[in-house]
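Sharing a chain and its predicted structure for anyone who wants a worked example. Both blocks are below, sequence first, tokens second.
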Amino acid sequence: LLVTSMINNGNLYAVIMRTINVVIIAMVFDLFQDKPETLINSLLICFEITIYINAVSMVLFPTGFAIDQDHEKEWILGHYITQYRWFLPAICLSLIYMHLTGKHKRSIMLISVSLFSALFAGSVGVIVGLFATLFLYCLPNVRNKVRIWWGAAISCAFFISIVVMRMQYLFKDIIVNILHRDLSFTGRIYIWDAALIIFRRNYLIGNGYYYSLPIPQWAGQETQYASHAHCQLLEVLMQGGIVYLILLCVMLIELSKRLNINQNIYSEIIQCSIFGIFVYGLTDVFLTSPLIYIVFLIGFCSPSLQTDLASKRKKYDFTKYAKENYII
């Protein structure tokens, strides 16, 4: 992205800062690689503080602290769409912590508050992504079969059938009656049209990191810009082209191999979480947030970390506990 942004006069500052943030998070993981429980506990504390304070702000100020330039309500963690970057990793860490320590109350509390916040904010994409993760987790016979390619396959199918071929009318009942959205995906089809035009300009190495995405006049929008392509696969192609997509595929293949080397409850949780992230990425983007990389880095740590996690696992099954206490 740095090279293609330089070639196409993209936003170099944004690329560099995002890279630095991800590298810092990766260095923290490397530093605590031999102390997984300390790492997970420390990360969980950070998410607890921010998510709980944000939830309080939502209750006290239901109309938001302020209204941003897109007329969206904002709270401590931003407006309703940007809060996904906190909720998705928080749920993943909560489930891992629960199995690692055998302590369920702390994890259930954070998961509950995250779900409450997502429902209160009303972002359909975030809600569907969170529930997809938890739904798969609560089905042990399905959970142990989940693989990273599940999410990747759904992303490709959505991109081809909806973003490119516009076959959303085939899913009208789901989109309109269940998700309560119109067939334009709340105006996203205009953004996809603009992003596809930009992708075709330089389909091999992409167009670099845009600060904002220009939307043509014919889109009929009040604003002439969008902050991103509102589809992660399309965003990848637009920014880095086919080369960037291939590199990401190689990364996901390597990540999948590492997770499958030590198949245990932790690898299952990580793969369920990545599936939820991919589901969210159907109509939004997630790679713009360094926090989302936490989920990938947990799985991308060396196999020794996975082995260490497995060796410290307490004999605890949340599904059994939930059934005994009438949670599910």
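Comments welcome. DSSP finds 15 helices and five strands in the chain.
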